[in-house]
Amino acid sequence: MPNTPYVASLLSLMSFQTYDRHYLPRIIYPGREEIELVLDGQAILKTPHQEYRVGPGDVIWHRPGDQTICSTRESHPYECIILALEINPRRSLRRSRMNRWSGVISIRQFAEDALRRLTEHVNDPEFAEYLYCALKVHSEPMLGADFQSLSHSSALAFDKAFQFISDHFKDPALTVDMVADAAFVSVSQLHNIFHEKTDLTPYQMINQCRMEYALTLVSENRPIKQVAAMSGFESESGFIRAFKKKYGSSPGALKKQHQVLGNWRAVTVA
Q1: Where are the domains of the chain?
Q2: φ and ψ of 167, to 5 deg
Q3: CA 178 – CA 109 distance, rounded (Å)
Q4: 223-234 residue pLDDT tens
Q5: Is the pLDDT of residue 270 over 60?
Q6: What is the arithmetic mean of pLDDT over 43-61?
Q7: Would you list the DSSP string of 14-30?
């Protein structure tokens, strides 16, 4: 696809502030990339080998299968701009990177200018490509942020496995063996690849996808039994236990607490 732009479209460009709320990481799904421009505060970027504390001026690149950053243990306030992009079908084998903004104007000025121009460029792929390229040009990899790349074969296997999980996590019969078969690797190889790529096992990745989808359904005020079934859980009781362990409160209680909260990424942890 030599003449096809890397960026297909701009899915969202939005500001995010936590104030005193604790928030959890999300998974970036196939066909997407997200870039976080850190404007203020502190957060944590977790990799399989190390944790990095991020702050103002950092540019965090998230690719399919990566987990986004999360709040610090002290729940420091955090402010950023999130750029979500749909990517044309093309392999990107680089791991997530933590960069440092190096533009002439401040990163906040760049973010505010992008938000102002968004209304003039809704559904404009050229604007999306401009933002993507500007961030690549005006940010530099931070020293010490050593994100090793997967081998080509391992990266392809991870892509196949993660795509299969994304397509089938709603099925309660999904197993790690099925994921390994879809990626044309053994179960042990699959575990090694996930260990290299992310801090989740294949089973934990399946559960993470289910929990994030369940959180979205809970935010839509759906009945808990329906949420459990639609998210791939075999029983309502099992779903409630898993949800409470993940988010710190039951789905029913969280629905009541956050009825008016528009951004479900910020979740209060008991």
Answers
A1: 7-141, 152-257
A2: -80, -25
A3: 48
A4: 999 999 999 999
A5: no
A6: 90
A7: EEEE-TT--B---BPPT
Nearest 10 degrees: CA dihedral of 35, 21, 222, 32? 10
267 SS3 class: coil
Query: Where are any strands of DSSP class E within the chain?
Result: 7-17, 32-41, 43-46, 51-54, 58-62, 78-87, 97-101, 139-141
Residue labelled with tokens 């078969």: 181
Residues whose CB is less than 8 angstroms from the CB of residue 167 and which lie 6 or more positions away in sequence, other chains included: none
Q: What is the C-alpha to C-alpha distance for residues 56 and 136, in angstroms, rounded to an integer?
A: 17
Q: What is the pTM of this model?
A: 0.80
Asked whether residue 152 carries a pLDDT value surpassing 90, the answer given is no
Note the pLDDT of residue 193: 92
Q: What's residue 148's pLDDT?
A: 56
- Does 132 score more than 50 pLDDT? yes
Q: What's the CATH fold of domain 7-141?
A: Jelly Rolls (2.60.120)
Q: Which residue bears the tokens 């940010």?
A: 139
Fold of 152-257: Arc Repressor Mutant, subunit A (1.10.10)
In angstroms, the CA 120 to CA 124 distance is: 9
